[in-house]
């Protein structure tokens, strides 16, 4: 039995087998290095993709906020136009009825205040 072990050891570790093993080890080392490099590249791409996703999410949020502000501004403008139109209707009615100038003056003051509100906002 011991003799068989010595023979196997000589076969496995013979100079020609040693060279083959050494070459195979070098090849596997190169392949491992290439795989490690590829994994690092993939990790970098994943990190980059995460950054892009975060930026797009932030842009989506900003877009939503801008849309909401525009909608709010548009609604306020519509309300203001309705108020101006109602006051103009009142003024025209007062002119037709020839009411006292005091009433017209009050309405004109209201319109001036609304114009100030619009300019301040």
TrEMBL record:
Chain intervals with Basic and acidic residues compositional bias: 1-12, 20-32
InterPro entries (alphabetical): L1_trimer (IPR035301)
Any matching Pfam family: Tnp_22_trimer
Region ranges (Disordered): 1-32
Domain L1 transposable element trimerization: 76-102
UniProt-recorded name of the protein: L1 transposable element trimerization domain-containing protein
Gene source species: Papio anubis (Olive baboon)
Taxon lineage: Eukaryota, Metazoa, Chordata, Craniata, Vertebrata
């Amino acid at each position: 039995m011991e003799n068989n072990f010595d023979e196997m050891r000589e076969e496995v570790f013979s100079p020609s087998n040693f060279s083959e093993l050494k070459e195979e080890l070098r090849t596997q080392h190169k392949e491992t290095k290439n795989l490690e490099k590829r994994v690092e590249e993939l990790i970098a791409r994943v990190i980059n993709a995460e950054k892009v996703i975060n930026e797009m999410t932030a842009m989506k949020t900003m877009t939503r906020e801008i849309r909401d502000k525009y909608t709010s501004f548009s609604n306020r403008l519509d309300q203001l136009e309705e108020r101006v139109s109602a006051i103009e209707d009142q003024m025209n009615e007062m002119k037709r009825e020839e009411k006292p100038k005091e009433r017209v003056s009050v309405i004109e003051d209201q319109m001036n205040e609304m114009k100030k509100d619009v300019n301040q906002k």
